Amino acid sequence: MRRSFFYIVLITTLFFITNCTQRWDKKYCPVLHSSSMPWELNNKGIPSVKLEVIRALDERLPTLSDREMNQILNEAKRIVRMKLGSHIDFHFHDNGIISLDELFKDKSYRNTARYRKLNRDRYDLERGPDMPCLKEEKFKKRVIKFLKRWDLKDLTGFFPDQTIINYDDVYNNLFRVYHQRVSHLKTLRTPNGNLLLKSPLPPYQSYVEWDSFLRYQDRYDIIFTNTLIMADLMSEPYPHSVLKHAKIGGGGFLCPKCTAFNGNTVMISTIEEHGNIKGLSDMDKNISRELKNKVIGGFLLAHEIGHALYLLPDVYDHGDMCLMSSSLSNFDYVRGYNLLLSDPTACSKCLQDVRTAESIIYGKLAYKDGAYNKAADSYLEGAGKMPPKIGDYVNWYKWCIYQRALELYEKIGHQENIEKTRRLIESLEDLRKKKSKKRTTLLLKKHKMSGLETTPQYLFDPTHASSSKQIYHGLAFLFLAPNIV
Ligand SMILES: [Zn+2]
Ligand SMILES: [Zn+2]
């Protein structure tokens, strides 16, 4: 029985190798050039982009003053320059303060398929552990599929006192903690003594609503809020968010119409640093407001700018002094910030990707001027700078860049470059085929040994990639899933 099952998997998998490896689809590639591209050359001839910033206010809680906002933005800029060694320029346009009610006034985002999908899996504050879906095997399976983005050994680190031997154990422990954290959230009070989590939960305190709203809006590249956002999407329980009070601290979100950040937007909640909520802020009381702001700007926002502007991934092997490092040792923000400052030079590994991003930006500018040949040349130059030791996502991104260059060469009919680019595309596709074969053999071997459930979809669907070191999360973050803290 086991043997015949193995052969079925083998045959199906080989079928997928020959068919699916061809299916890198252009429609998932980022839009590199468009007429609404916001980059300009500044008076020094350097590419520059304006980032729209807003503070969204929960009137019950302390907020950031204009001066503090400035402090945060300046620090973010300083650290990005220092740690990424970027030659391009960005500047912030502070749109001041808006109330959260006003920000969420237009509910059109609720008419999207995304919202309908997420809304089905929302945490019910009244029922808690008695929610019917928690008794469904189907729901558990979906959550476990989500948790498989992380290696099991990385997840066990979240539960040091528990014996974790499989993803079922992670699921059980995570939901046990989830309910505890939510019960705790329900007891928290604002400085005026009111309950912090409003009942019923207003849209602006729900991650489900924020995610759909951010995807829909087109006005802001960076949104700060002072409110508490509950991690209420039960089907995607980000372990670090669930463990940290079951709340969302912010991060990068998809926003297809936000062109400055390559189709992304950044949201940061400052409740932990500035909310003055007993039982929520883990930060040392002796840390000055100024240092907190520097940490928000230089550690949190700068990291998100690394993702959104330069398409950098989260990394695990560049050392803790790298801005994009996502190892658990950076869990303490102040410590992470101090580590960044302890080496005021750019990370040499990130620098390669930064140079790629810069070439792409020069390409975009050339496109805007109608210089298609120059634009395509810049794209090829950018792809050429990508590190030789590459993972699947990087190959795919490189393939996308080539496709965009090819489109432009075809537009102007540059035959020689059309052929050259086609050859580059083919060589990447060949590499993909070879790699997939090797990877599949490996996974089948693993399957045979451990009895793991390894379906062909799991092998080829990039949304289910594990968090192993060489996989470029940044790209998954950019095009497939939000990257939240
Ligand atoms: Zn990150
Ligand atoms: Zn780095």
Question: Gist?
Answer:
It is built from 18 helices and 7 strands. With 485 residues, it is α/β, with parallel strands linked by helices.
Strand content: 5-15%
- How large is the radius of gyration? 23 Å
Biggest beta sheet summary: 7 strands, mixed
Helix-strand sequence: HEEHEHHHHHHEHEEHHHHHHHHHE
Question: In terms of topology, how is this protein built?
Answer:
Elements: H1 2-20, E1 40-41, E2 47-57, H2 66-84, E3 89-99, H3 100-103, H4 113-119, H5 137-147, H6 152-156, H7 167-187, H8 207-216, E4 222-225, H9 239-243, E5 250-254, E6 264-269, H10 271-274, H11 289-310, H12 333-342, H13 348-368, H14 372-384, H15 392-412, H16 415-450, H17 456-460, H18 473-479, E7 483-484
Parallel strand pairs: 2-3, 2-4, 4-6
Antiparallel strand pairs: 1-2, 5-6, 5-7
Helix pairs in contact: 1-16, 2-11, 4-8, 5-7, 11-12, 13-14, 14-15, 15-16
The structure holds zinc ion (ZN) (2 copies).
Describe this structure in words.
The protein folds into two domains: 2-38 and 349-456, no CATH class; 50-347, no CATH class. Strands 1, 2, 3, 4, 5, 6 and 7 form a seven-stranded mixed β-sheet that branches. By secondary structure, it is α/β, with parallel strands linked by helices. It contains 18 helices and seven strands. It has helices at residues 2-20, 66-84, 100-103, 113-119, 137-147, 152-156, 167-187, 207-216, 239-243, 271-274, 289-310, 333-342, 348-368, 372-384, 392-412, 415-450, 456-460, 473-479; strands spanning 40-41, 47-57, 89-99, 222-225, 250-254, 264-269, 483-484. 49% of the residues lie in helices and 8% in strands. The model is unreliable at 1-22 and 442-482 (pLDDT under 50). The site of one zinc ion has 7 residues, from helix 13.
